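Report of the visiting student (M.T.), summer placement. My assignment was to run the structure pipeline on a short list of targets and document each run. The first record concerns Orn/Lys/Arg decarboxylase N-terminal domain-containing protein.
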Amino acid sequence: MTRNSVLLALRENPLAGGVSTEQVRRIGKELDNRGLEPRWAVSAEEAGAILRTEAGLSAAVIAWDLPGGTDGEGGGADVLRQIQRRWKRLPVFLLMNDDSDQDLERLPLWVSEAVIGYVWPLEDTATFIAGRIVTAAQAYHQDILPPFFRALRRFDDAHEYSWHTPAHSGGVAFLKSATGRAFFEYFGERLFRSDLSISVGALGSLFEHNGPIGDAERNAARVFGADRTYFVLHGNSTADRMVGHYSVTADEIALVDRNCHKSVLHGLVISGARPVYLVPTRNGYGLAGPLPPHAIAPGAVAARVAENPLAAGAVAPEAQYAVVTNSTYDGLCYDTVAAARAFAPSTPRLHFDEAWFAYARFHPLYAGRYGMAVGPDTLPGPERPTVFSTQSTHKLLAALSQGAMVHVRSSPRAPVEHERFNEAYMMHGTTSPLYPAIASLDVAAAMMDGPQGEWLIDEAVTEAIRFRQAVVRTGRRVAEAGDRPEWFFGVWQPDTVTDPATGTPVAFADAPAALLRSEPSCWQLEPGAAWHGFEGLTEGYCMLDPIKVTLTCPGVSASGETSSWGIPARVLTAYLADRGIVVEKTDSYTTLILFSMGITKGKWGTLMDALMDFKSLYDADAPLEEVLPGLVEQYPLRYGGGTLRGLCQDMHEHLASGELIASLDAAFQQLPEPVEPPQRCYQRLIRGGTERLRLAEAAGRVAAAMVTVTPPGIPVLMPGESTGTPDGPLLRYLGALEAFDREFPGFHSEAHGVSVDPESGDYLIECVRRSPA
Ligand SMILES: *Cc1c(COP(=O)(O)O)cnc(C)c1O
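After the run finished, the structure tokens were exported:
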């Protein structure tokens, strides 16, 4: 275990002479004896470096006359301000100079709010002063614990005997077998001690939302800006099903973003709702954009409902519920207030699936772009819909896998009565929750509370911006060097940004990081801008999230013009994977990487290096044996003797040839015909079963499973929809993908819901069996 530490920032080297300094050195020694590691600094800059890297800081002692600092107030003031930016409650003592005429009345007023006490080294004994610091540090460590985690620790420390489930009883049962013992020892006693049953009344109940669990949910609601927050232990998938199951019932209409997760569809199966899909825009890279403003305007929504044959059989013509993915996988987030205003005439309940976006509230860059930003403050008036936000807390905040939350902001128009929502909640919950998982949700919320939340997210944003600028600058240096082919990888982002203070555009790579970190307009998708390639957007409607970085490869532009040569991203990511770098997602000419709180400079430096190496290999037209040895070994006949450039060019020509792109376009412009509501389709599947059909046999059938292909990573076929005619858009598109996979073994398309016949390479899709005539 690492030790907690205390920052001691003083005017001179602690080893220097002087009675006062010597006394501070003794205080440090005393702290060390009592288990706190002293970290010395003799300037504001050194103190700053410790503050940036030391999360285990328990207290700080700062000399007011510390050298350094940037703002003219002096080093001590500078460090106090740095502390305030990250820590809300860290105990800070101001170290006063015994030799000078410093006195409290000459300190600025704000200082007394920033510190909890003053230390005149010579006025008390070192032991006494260290004792005060240690006491404050201990109180701080109690104080930072959120409600449930605090209660759980207290309970575990009490070591009671229990007579209830789980039967392993604090892990003892595992110790009775060699296999069990291996398990116990691997995870350690603490996991088993804290794995308690809900019979432990003192910790509260997840279903009744009371006791410390209820306190933890209320604390999370405060932190995330919700009226009410529910902890969910089976992933955001369950959160999505809960909200869907609560919001809409059998044969009512649900408005569903076509770019939705499977779990949303499962919610529709369970509720029996009739989905009417809304279609996102796409750009030349094939990336899915947001639902454009014109697609969510009341008239357009009404028209889509009117043309949907299933909606005709609904119990009422108005939708009860709409669900939108925010942000998209590629990091596109909405002006949620504008989206809610647009949806208001069409639905009383609006659900933002924010699986990848739980951090949005904690950085000013995302102001107004997350579900919980929609409330009476931002959207006054009776039309405001009730808003749900579901988040995979574990995906981009720090929680154990499966940890998720539902946040609710209820409107008078469709009030969410807790008792009723809780019925849906309990139906999808377990009566035996894992307490360490609950604690991780409690901790995830506490970590975001106060200034440190912004600090943590800002770090991820800052690293992402550094990487984004580094890629562009490297491209520029390559071009300027003139000694090698000019191309380099790009980043999907604006080429220039404008500081609203000056109104002058600057190149993205040259923009001050401070501007990019704080100015949302730098990241907005301006209507009509070439870099993003989406049509029909309005000012400020959609923003690119800096931490979701899409690398672009040569070959195609955002508006879809193809060039004579290209590097399909799948070749790049195969190379990266060989070097131990695994990306989040790969499309035709783009690949996505995420900058989460866990990213470090070492990690992205390695990626930059790999990109440079790939360029050198490409420019030298290296043999595939050298670049992708595993691939050549697996498919010697196909790739043996080939070169990197040759493979890229072959694949580029195949991708750029009309069929794949044209059929992809068609498949997204004309959604398949809905034949059965998802629930009915599911009933038929259970009674009649399904069969896997080759594309050649699949025409005119009802799909039983969701088919999602990348790009654009959104479903092309939903259960209950018709596969269409043999030369219809869907089967033509799947056929084109199948042909690609045959041509380029080892680079098969990412297609979920499609299985591949290992012998023939044929695509198979799951269709509902025809009922016997
Ligand atoms: C991952 C994801 C989910 C499901 O979340 P889990 O926590 O994995 O269950 C739901 N919606 C979207 C958009 C997702 O990306």
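The mean pLDDT is 92. The longest strand covers residues 57-63. I thank the supervising group for their guidance throughout the placement.
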